[in-house]
Amino acid sequence: MKFNHTLKQFLTGTIVSLSFAYSAQAGLISVKSIEISNAINNWLQVSEVVALDNLSNDVALSSAGAIATAPDTWSSFSTPAKAIDGITAGNYSLGQIFHEGSNNSHDSLTITFASVVELMSIQIFGRTDCCTDRDFYTVSFFNDSGDNLFTTSVDSRFGAHPVVVLPNTASANIQNSVAVSTPSTLALFGLALLSFGLTRRKMTK
Predict the structure, then answer these.
(1) Residue 167 to residues 11, 172, 173, 180, 188: CA-CA distances in angstroms?
(2) Please, which residues bridge with residue 124 across strands?
(3) Which residues, in sequence order, are bridge partners of residue 48?
(4) CA 100 → CA 64, 68, 74, 92, 105, distances in Å?
(5) Distance from the first to the final alpha carbon of the chain
(6) Which of 34, 173, 187, 198 is 20 to 30 Å apart from 49, CA to CA?
(7) What are the beta bridge partners of residue 37?
(8) At how many degrees (to 10) do helices 171-204 and 2-23 cross?
(9) What is the pLDDT of residues 79-124, one digit of tens each?
(10) Where are the alpha helices (DSSP H) in the chain?
């Protein structure tokens, strides 16, 4: 009975450990910056970018240390900083959006985070006072070395601002971790069974 209790504790601990490893990462890891461009070769205009990390913090805010840059801007009141100021209203005349300076120039709005983050979702608010048919975006995510981690589309046309859930790029690491630990776990389990068999054999003599 004592052995059975010990075996149960061992198996429970193994399951808990594997479950913890599986849930430790749940988003796009190692993200340092994102680049946003217009997916339909139209004017790039962005009211606000919301990027939530694994603690549900918006790391794209300027108040969180993020920095927004772009090659050009339409005017002094439509600068890249407008896309990370926390205002989602999207009225150009009120100075609430970023607007690129040249059409069909394939410019990108780059947002660099204060540190490397794990992102759960991305949301982009477009313009609301005019030309809402333009706001279809391509978003690319980069690590600290400039490597492209993932690229997706965000369709914010006609006032939509969907939340795009990002993939769990830690899943490969989890699988590798489980695959590496499996032989040792099986070995321990085998030893436990062997010990159990020897104990039963001793008791029957």
Answers:
(1) 30, 11, 13, 23, 34
(2) 49
(3) 125
(4) 24, 13, 5, 12, 9
(5) 18
(6) 173
(7) 138
(8) 180
(9) 999 999 999 999 999 999 999 998 767 789 999 999 999 999 999 9
(10) 2-23, 171-204
Sorted by sequence, the CB contacts under 8 Å of residue 40 that are 6+ apart come out as: 134, 136
Q: Which residues pair with 33 in a beta bridge?
A: 112, 142
Residue 54's closest CA among 73, 29, 34? 29
* Tokens describing residue 78: 């439509």
pTM for the full predicted model: 0.72
Residue 51 is encoded by which pair of tokens? 């990027």
Query: What long-range pairs does 11-20 form, CB within 8 A, spacing at least 24?
Result: 11/189, 14/185, 18/178, 18/181
> Helix, strand, coil: what percent of the chain each, to 5?
35, 30, 35
Residue for token pair 């985070």: 113
Pick the closest to residue 24 from 161, 173, 149, 127 (CA basis).
Answer: 173
Neighbours of 66 (CB within 10 A): 22
